[in-house]
């Protein structure tokens, strides 16, 4: 066990070693060294301007503590990032050891925890979670989440519930914990037979298993016992939701796509399939993904609603997405008895993504960091498949494992370089979708503008509004940059264009008034 953990830690650190050269990017500029709420401010929902609609008070307290220690030094936050990822990876190892305890014979499954944790530690999809300092601060809550799940598996309910409460108030992604525990109880901890048809042997930690109670009365007792164990977690979620929605009235980060819940859900079917694809083939990673032509992941002011409004459930890509989702759900049911670990892995993936399925609008349809918890389901399934392959063709399995580890580690190392700063990050997005990604062009323009590289900024803003002519913020940014260059007529023209699209754009009105006062 110790040797396996040392290999996992070494490989993971090696893949992320180059993050210490990276500077701040995206929201790092807003939070690091600047967001210092006290306990009262944090728990009453104080967040920086532009981040309304989120409630993560314990994260806010961590920012205050870290800012006191590290100030605006990125090194301290990179240390936090790596520590968060290593802690999560080790917990994955420990969780898998317990999950497979009575499902797979010891000799057959002894490498499964190692494989799952190694794949988790190296998977490139985690770069946005870890390399992006602000996201890693959120992910402290995922360490609490995984710790709570691990302690539940060990039947240590009180410390598990305490960690769960910390997780709920650190990141919304942790709110699925009660459902995932329920999934475990139904799929893994329920009556089952391992593939060789040997009966499952109970142990001292599983006295409450439903399959060891006689007949219907025993089953009822088992359900009662399970309910008693899980109920505190649902209560914790209820307290969080009550405080957030009823007490503080912190609701959403924007409207549904095209103001339609139905159209939003149609779009999210495509997002789910894209999530699956980037887990399988983590090559074209991006900060702002293109969901389909004309639909970008990040929903910003005056995003393109026409393409979204034209969607239909009969569109080929939506029908295909729905078919794949139904097929995966079908696998959950047909695999439960013989291969419960398959059912658990797929169920974990779907359930853990519920907070970002736009049931409550978040302002972004797809973020790679949203896959940090969900990816456990994927790597567990992949590890299980590789473990099965190794039983018949050991040498082939070893070769494939080494190749996947090298691919994951190398791709992670390369993707970390994209996060060096705002310019390199958005340049990477633009290279992927040069003629579709209006927001990436806009964000790259902002990065150039901050460096006073005005002509480069104008080139990017111009391309942004060419891709999305209704992008009022793009036109406004053109006006601002022209004004900074002293080109007042061009500034006025672009400001007026922004107001034609969005007459209530008060920042543009103020800028125009200031220009007219100086003329």
Instruction: Compute the number of structural domains.
Output: 2
Task: Write the H/E string, N to C.
Answer: HHHHHHHHHHHHHHEEHHHHHHHHHHH
**Overall radius of gyration:** 25 Å
User: Strands across the major sheet, in which order?
Assistant: 1-2
Number of strands: 2
Number of DSSP helical runs: 25
* Major sheet: 2 strands, antiparallel
Low-confidence stretches: 191-216
Ends apart, CA distance between termini: 74 Å
Query: So what's the overall shape?
Result: globular
Strand content: under 5%
**Strand pairing plus helix content: what structural class?**
mainly alpha
Percent in helix: 55-70%
Q: How is the secondary structure organized here?
A:
Layout: H1 2-16, H2 28-31, H3 39-43, H4 57-70, H5 74-99, H6 106-109, H7 112-122, H8 127-130, H9 133-138, H10 140-153, H11 157-168, H12 177-188, H13 215-247, H14 261-280, E1 290-292, E2 295-296, H15 306-309, H16 316-335, H17 340-352, H18 371-392, H19 394-418, H20 422-432, H21 438-450, H22 454-467, H23 472-484, H24 488-501, H25 506-518
Antiparallel strand pairs: 1-2
Helix pairs in contact: 1-5, 1-7, 1-19, 5-7, 5-10, 7-18, 7-19, 10-11, 11-13, 12-13, 12-17, 14-16, 16-17, 17-18, 18-19, 20-21, 21-22, 22-23, 23-24, 24-25
